[in-house]
Amino acid sequence: MNTKKFARMRHINDIHNGQKSVDKIKDQVKQHPWYLRYHVSPPANWMNDPTGFSYFNDEYHLFYQHYPYDHIWGLMHWAHVKSKDLVHWEHMPIALAPSESYDADGCFSGSAIEIDKKLLLMYTGHVITGPNSDEDLIETQAIAISNDGVVFEKIDENPVIKGLPEGDFHQGHFRDPKIWKYENTYYAIIGSTTKDQTKGQAVLFKSNNLTEWVFVTTVAKAGNNQGTMWECPDLFELNGKHILIVSPQGISPEDVYYHNHHQSGFFIGDFDYDEGRLKNYNAFNLLDYGFDFYAPQTVYDKYGRRILIGWMNMWESEMPTKKFGWAGAMTIPRLLELKDGRLKILPIPELGILRKNEVIYKDIIIKGELSLPKVDGDCIELELELDLKDASLFAIKMRVNEVENEETVLSYDITKGLISLDRNRSGEGVKGIRSAEYELNDNKMKLHIFIDKSSIEIFIGEGEKVMTTRIFPKETSKSILFLAKGKAKMLSISKWDLSI
Ligand code: FRU
């Protein structure tokens, strides 16, 4: 057998073994009460970053970082799901397994693009060269191609980007290419850091043929306390401006912000294709103010929408689902819009097809604590509109079980203008509070909440802020309570059960 054929067989074999390991326990994993119903999760074992989010042959494709042999991070594969509507997802065979010398220690994150009716994946080949995992590593960029969107073959020219030029770049930390095409040229923006690993940066390469890439420049670099390494960059146009998304490591807490292990956020600016730089960009803003959100990636779909999905977990966080054979989930897909210079993040409307058993109330006065018949559950959607003119505090307690002393609380302190999510009594897992400043518009506040078996996602106002958390309560913790200091008026509340 020739070497190329042998390499291909080895890849197929590695995929097969990974798949077998997942298939062995997947039926049992999905029985568990914390297993999510309408979020993408691994059928079994480990998941981190979304990768290769793309639109191909009339379907959305999403890949993710996957270790098929255990519920912990390990040798990274790319697992694969696809969907016609971003709501119902089908698990596909594993797409990439480490099988070559240039990706021997993992097929790390990357992206996908349709080219000539083929789906092309660009990913980072991760290789460890010594005992210090922070210094002794080689990261290069590689490509795999599929005709049918199911079986992916690594190309012979790999790695197509072998490293960074001389300059203020750490030669090891160089990962997570996001590829796109603009006026007949392919571009890839890649995560990087300075030589001394003190400032994160995103670097740009370009190519005419996808196999030969030239370095352009640094697109943007961290300012003060904007991170020591930027992972998973994404750059795209939105309503005439450009958004640069990055996932920085090493940001220190400031006031109520940056208390997670790593952060994910964005800059709004103008990308200059001649120079390859993001210009006129403003402050770094978080994409999500909760506990569990990292490494998001976007796709531009056939309706001209920019959709984002993030990893709904956080590095170094205890993940109590591990005991039941799995860890990791994706957020619901979120629609990005830019209005009046501000990024708005909203749940995609397609999720509406999951709604069952609508319950509606109008003009409810809340003084003290209140519950509403049939407003409860652990796999539900809630839409609320509040008038907080006469209140100093409003709170909604979810997944409540008074006997077990469990609750997850979203509260808004009107005097401080601070919205907080408290998971100190949410059951198992890491505790804490995350907060964000929020200003009322004409004393009104809208909340749009998605609860799944072990997650809560809260969209505030017109999508100005989002807060996401994983929670691990008892199966019986299902009540919802509303609370006001002073008098709050719930102008309307709608609740739906969500079933897939
Ligand atoms: C982000 C990240 C990426 C890397 C991948 C490895 O969460 O660290 O930078 O490619 O995860 O699994």
Describe the protein in words.
This protein has one helix at 3-29, and strands spanning 45-56, 59-67, 77-83, 90-96, 107-115, 118-128, 137-146, 153-154, 174-182, 185-193, 200-207, 213-221, 229-238, 241-249, 265-272, 277-279, 285-286, 294-300, 306-311, 326-327, 334-339, 342-347, 355-370, 380-401, 406-413, 418-425, 433-437, 444-452, 455-460, 465-470, 479-498. With 500 residues, it is mainly beta. It has 2 domains: 3-347, Tachylectin-2, Chain A (5 Propeller), CATH 2.115.10.20; 353-498, Jelly Rolls (Sandwich), CATH 2.60.120. The strands form 6 sheets. Strands 23, 24, 25, 26, 27, 28, 29, 30 and 31 form a 9-stranded antiparallel beta sheet that branches. Strands 4-3-2-1-20 form a 5-stranded mixed beta sheet, covered by helices on one side. Strands 13, 14, 15, 16 and 17 form a 5-stranded antiparallel beta sheet that branches. A hairpin with a 7-residue loop joins strand 26 and strand 27 (433-437). The chain is globular. The mean pLDDT is 97. It binds beta-D-fructofuranose (FRU).
Q: Kindly report the average pLDDT value.
A: 97
Q: Regions with pLDDT < 50 over 5+ consecutive residues?
A: none
CATH H level, superfamily name of the largest domain: Glycosyl hydrolase domain, family 43
DSSP strand tally: 31
Question: What's the number of structural domains?
Answer: 2
The shape is: globular
Bound molecules: beta-D-fructofuranose
Give the count of helical stretches: 1
CATH class category of the largest domain: Mainly Beta
Q: What radius of gyration results from the CA coordinates? A: 23 Å
Helix content: under 10%
